[in-house]
Amino acid sequence: MLQNDSDTLVRKALEKLPANFREVLILRELEGMSHREIADITDMPAGIVMSTLSRARGRLRQVLTILMSGGTVPNSRRIAAVNA
After folding, report:
1. What are phi and psi of 16, to 5 degrees?
2. HSE value, Cβ hemisphere, 13 Å, CA-based, for 2
3. For residue range 8-66, what is the model confidence (pLDDT) as tens digits?
4. Which of 26, 54, 56, 60 is the most exposed place for a label (fewest CB within 10 A)?
5. How far apart, in whole angstroms, are the C-alpha atoms of residue 57 and residue 83?
6. In this structure, are residues 49 and 7 in contact, taking their beta carbons and an 8 Å threshold?
7. CATH 3.30.2140.20 at 2-82, yes or no
8. pTM for this predicted structure
């Protein structure tokens, strides 16, 4: 049951991310693709994939923290500004 709750929370958090963040996170963390494979699929340079992945992980942490505390997640553009 706890696993289902965690899965639901992560799914909700992923839905709150901008599409490009969600895409690289899913390809890397769920599909297990390398940075090079993600770069080929998304037509992004590998360096951009790495920086986008880093920013996406940070944003996912922010969203999960908000959701776990029972808060409401602002739209994706405001998340970074709220925690800056």
Report:
1. -80, -10
2. 0
3. 888 999 999 999 999 999 999 999 999 999 999 999 999 999 999 999 999 999 999 99
4. 54
5. 14
6. no
7. no
8. 0.79
Q: Cα(34)–Cα(25) distance, rounded to whole angstroms?
A: 11
Residue ranges per structural domain of the chain: 2-82
The burial of 10, by beta-carbon neighbours within 10 Å (0-12 exposed, 13-18 middle, 19 or more buried), is given as: middle
**Tokens (6 digits) for 59:** 């944003």
Which pLDDT score is estimated for 72? 79
Side chain identity at residue 66, one-letter code: I
50 touches 75 (CB < 8 A): no
State pLDDT tens for residues 63-83. Answer: 999 998 888 787 655 554 444
